[in-house]
Specification:
Number of strands: 19
Distance between the termini: 117 Å
Helix content: 10-25%
Shape: flat
Structural class: alpha+beta
Number of domains: 4
Largest sheet: 8 strands, antiparallel
């Protein structure tokens, strides 16, 4: 500890110097021994505290505290040294000739260290503090008022709109039906559940062939036409000695100009077979024909008209796509008109609910088809229709030169009892069902 250390035994804050052993009195010796004893005791206490509470300043447990430098002169007696050491029990001390410097680890930033000497001062020199831990420590001690937990609002249930497929909003459908030959006013009865109404269906984008000059030459050769190909893309013609053929956009028209044989027309089944054989043999359509139907017949003129619609998408109510073939005597093809897609591209669309569609029927927005040819008399009729089935049919939407589709209609079908005559006739009502379509055409 060296001869320059102060023991704090002098008065008036003047430190006493050590004297040799040959010159001190008995009293000075006792005082010296007492001072040394207290000093040793203080050092033992300080060392013990430092051993327990000391540590590396980098210890995470000591972060967030401040460093305080305590400077002051030694107290009058050695008891003040012990008291001062007790008040700064968590400090590391370094001794100088007249000062005791300590680094505090436990004193909060606003605290002051109590010492007996009124002249002692505290110089606070804050060390760097981790802001995250400092804020956390502050938040842990702040008095917070309880807050009410937010109440989640439950939205009113709404019906989800029907699915819109890959083609977006569709053009209006052509609702084509047989109609009625007389005015028919109907009341309705449901003999089936509206839940049977389908919730979705496939919409088909139609891809029509773009005929090339080479295609036209091949088709003309199959037909036995000996003329040259005339015209250009989208508008070709070939004129032969017995027939002519025209390609206008996606439509093909054929006309026979030769002499017809003197033969019978044949039965409906024979007429249909002759028409389908001719279409397939000349490569107009690939295996997509339905069974065909005779839609007109004149035995005196020797003519029968056969209508074909697609088999891959069925039933189709519109005349696009279709192929009509007029058969003459002996199965000769007199005329044909073909507008047929080369491909169908499908996408699923949602349909309006059965309740919505039924309300539209009640509001007169459906297209009615009924065969009243067997009902006697003339004039308006009335009746009650019982609906037994709900199903899907297709119709055309769009126009040549733009996107063209087959779109689903929902069909409500059943029987109507005619009030005036008691006759029971089949009736079908067609309703456009795809969401996002405009007002139907037709």
């Amino acid at each position: 500890m060296g001869d320059r250390r102060s023991y704090g035994g002098g008065r008036g804050n003047v430190p006493e110097r050590r004297v040799s052993a040959t010159r001190h009195s008995d009293r000075s010796q006792r005082n010296l021994l007492a001072g040394v004893g207290f000093f040793v005791a203080a050092l033992v206490i300080i060392g013990a505290i430092l051993f327990v509470g000391g540590g590396d300043d980098d210890d995470p447990g000591n972060q967030g505290l401040v460093a305080t430098t305590v400077s002051g002169t030694a107290t009058e007696d050695s008891g003040s040294i012990l008291e001062s050491a007790t008040n700064t029990s968590t400090t590391e001390a370094t001794s100088g000739p007249n000062t005791a410097t300590s680094t505090s680890r436990a004193v909060p930033p606003t605290a002051t260290t109590e010492v007996d000497d009124p002249t002692a001062t505290i110089n606070e020199e804050p060390e760097e503090v981790d802001p995250t831990e400092a804020e956390t420590d502050t938040e842990d001690h702040e008095d917070t008022e309880p807050t009410e937990e937010p109440v989640e609002s439950v939205p009113d249930p709404t019906e989800e709109p029907p699915l819109v497929g890959d083609f977006g909003t569709l053009p209006p459908a052509q609702v084509v039906s047989g109609g009625t030959s007389r005015t028919l006013n109907l009341d309705f009865e449901l003999a089936t559940s509206l839940s049977n109404s389908p919730s979705s269906a496939i919409v088909y984008l139609l891809e029509f062939p773009a005929w090339t000059e080479s295609d036209v030459e091949s088709l003309a050769a199959n037909l036995g036409l000996d003329g040259e190909v005339e015209g250009g893309p989208g508008n070709y013609q070939v004129f032969g000695s017995t027939a002519e053929i025209y390609f206008s956009g996606s439509t093909i028209q054929y006309v026979y100009t030769g002499t017809l044989p003197d033969l019978e027309l044949g039965s409906d089944s024979a007429v249909i077979q002759s028409a389908s054989d001719w279409i397939y043999a000349n490569g107009f359509i690939g295996g997509d024909l339905d069974g065909g139907a005779v839609i007109g017949r004149d035995d005196e003129a020797g003519r029968a008209v056969v209508l074909f619609r697609p088999a891959d998408v069925s039933p189709v109510l519109s005349f696009v796509p279709s192929a009509t073939v007029t058969i003459g005597p002996g199965g000769t093809v007199v005329e044909a008109r073909i507008r047929w897609p080369s491909d169908y591209i499908g996408s699923e669309y949602g349909l309006w609910s059965g309740d919505t569609l039924w309300n539209r029927i009640l509001a007169g927005q459906g297209s009615v088809e009924a065969d009243l040819s067997g009902v006697a008399g003339s004039g308006a009729l009335s009746g009650t229709m019982a609906v037994y089935e709900i199903w899907i049919a297709y119709s055309y939407a769009g126009s040549p030169g733009s996107d063209e589709y087959l779109v689903p209609l929902v069909v409500f079908s059943g029987e109507a009892t005619i009030n005036e005559t008691g006759d029971v006739v089949p009736v079908s009502i067609y309703v456009p069902a795809v969401a996002g379509q405009s007002t139907p055409q037709g």
